[in-house]
Write a structure and sequence with these properties.
mainly alpha, 5 helices, rod-shaped
Amino acid sequence: MRKLVFIVILLLFVSCKEESIQKPEHLIEKEMMVDIMYDLSILNAIKFQNPISFEGYNSNELEYIYKKYKIDSTQFVQNNNYYTSNYKEYKKMFDQITQRINDDKTKLDTIISREERKKNLSVKSKKASLDSLSKKKSLKARLEEGAKANEEGVLD
């Protein structure tokens, strides 16, 4: 009976042992993995926000990533599993990606805002120029009418 209890307790300890995923043979550095995940996030956002932009392309976003970073699907999956096994580190990686996306969004918003201001200024200056021309034409027309009236008065 004692042997049975000992074996059961031993099995419980062994089964409760925390299993960690082995470091992949070709480990992708953490910063490069963040870059890969960032690119995937951007490509997926484009794909789902504007699916027409991907029409005509036969490859999917993962194939592009594999070529860009010179990795294969197995290497990516093994490394992704390795990094996901440590939740805190994986969350930090996603926080970096989120920060990077927010920084890019701020930069793009600034550029868009500047372009809109330039466009508005251009439209306003064109409108002011047209208003100025119409005032000149109006003044010219009034002067011509006045000249005609004077000629008619002189001729009468």
